[in-house]
Design brief:
Keywords: Electron transport, Heme, Iron, Metal-binding, Transport. InterPro entries: Cyt_c-like_dom, Cyt_c-like_dom_sf, Cyt_c_1A/1B. Pfam families: Cytochrom_C. The chain is mainly alpha-helical. The protein has a domain of about 100 residues: Cytochrome Bc1 Complex, Chain D, domain 2 (Orthogonal Bundle). Helix content is about 45%, strand content about 0%. It is built from 8 helices and no strands. Helix 3 crosses helix 8 and helix 6 crosses helix 8. It is elongated, with a radius of gyration of 33 Å. The termini are far apart.
Length: about 170
């Protein structure tokens, strides 16, 4: 079935294809790099000069204290923030989820929910969920109580934290 002519055609086709690819690479190098520019000092591409933009005065980041944030806290806005917590926590007393229920949590002992296995990290951090402790914990749970089982990354906005605490304090079991 295979004769000498068939093998010659197959070998010629492979050599022709290889030749086309080699010539294509050579032509692309001439077009994009340039002829005779294989030295190391030659930069490939074009340098576009961009004038430095005047960014103006740098705004200073103002740290908001707990007292300032809590003084203007809005419990109704905290209800919206609670959506972040709802997947793991419930507000009804005795309804533990992945995390303990948050019924009447403000002012409660940290390990007060019966039947919930708290991590030792929370118990070492503080005794009572005061508004200040909740504020610090909600900012960075792992930073406030290293080793805590809570995997949430925290609420970076001070207003969100204060609103959530106001909501939990005003609406313990809705």
């Amino acid at each position: 079935m295979f004769d000498t002519m068939t093998m010659t055609k197959v070998l010629g086709g492979l050599c022709g294809t290889l030749l086309v690819f080699m010539l294509g690479g050579w032509a692309a190098e001439l077009i994009y790099v340039g002829a005779g520019s294989h030295d190391e000092d030659h930069a490939q591409g074009y340098l576009v000069e961009v004038p430095e933009a005047d960014t103006g005065p740098v705004e200073e980041v103002v740290e908001v204290t707990f007292e300032e944030a809590f003084a203007v806290a809005d419990a109704s806005a905290g209800e919206g923030v609670f959506r972040n917590c709802r997947s793991c926590h419930a507000l009804a007393e005795g309804e533990n989820g992945v995390g303990p229920h948050l019924y009447d949590v403000v002012g409660r002992d940290i390990d007060a929910v019966a039947g919930y296995n708290y991590s030792g990290a929370l118990e070492e951090a503080a005794d009572v969920w005061t508004p200040e402790n909740l504020y610090a914990f909600l900012e960075d749970p792992q930073g406030w109580a290293p080793g805590t089982a809570m995997g949430y990354r925290g609420l970076p906005d001070p207003a969100d934290r204060a609103n959530l605490i106001a909501y939990l304090a005003s609406n313990p079991g809705s």
